Known about the structure:
It comes from Methylobacterium soli. This is DUF559 domain-containing protein. It holds the Pfam family DUF559. Residues 6-111 form the DUF559 domain. There is one protein chain. By secondary structure, the chain is α+β, with helices and mostly antiparallel strands. The chain is built from five helices and four strands; from the N terminus they run ααβββαβαα. It has one domain (3-115): VSR Endonuclease (Endonuclease, Chain A). The longest helix is centred in the middle third of the chain and has 16 residues, at 68-83. A four-stranded mixed sheet has the order 1-2-3-4, with helices on both faces.
Amino acid sequence: xxxxxxxxxxxxxxxxxxxxxxxxxxxxxxxxxxxxxxxxxxxxxxxxxxxxxxxxxxxxxxxxxxxxxxxxxxxxxxxxxxxxxxxxxxxxxxxxxxxxxxxxxxxxxxxxxxxxx
Length: 117
């Protein structure tokens, strides 16, 4: 088992409340029939959620992602995932918790944009 796979498995067991809420909305093709995987290894990273058919990674970011250091890390991570063919959509914890319907619409719009490219 690769290091990323082991880390992904551990992250699936210890997901945050926000990730659990979004996963309930996405799992079992719950977003217009698109299949998502959670805590999915891509290259040396583990994506919070990935729709492989659309080449879309959805990351749920908490308060720690507001620091300059974390923003730089996120930018580098997004660039590396782009080199693997994925667009990264970053969502704030607050948005997922307070506006799940709007978050679903945002994700669906990103998928549709990717599929029609």
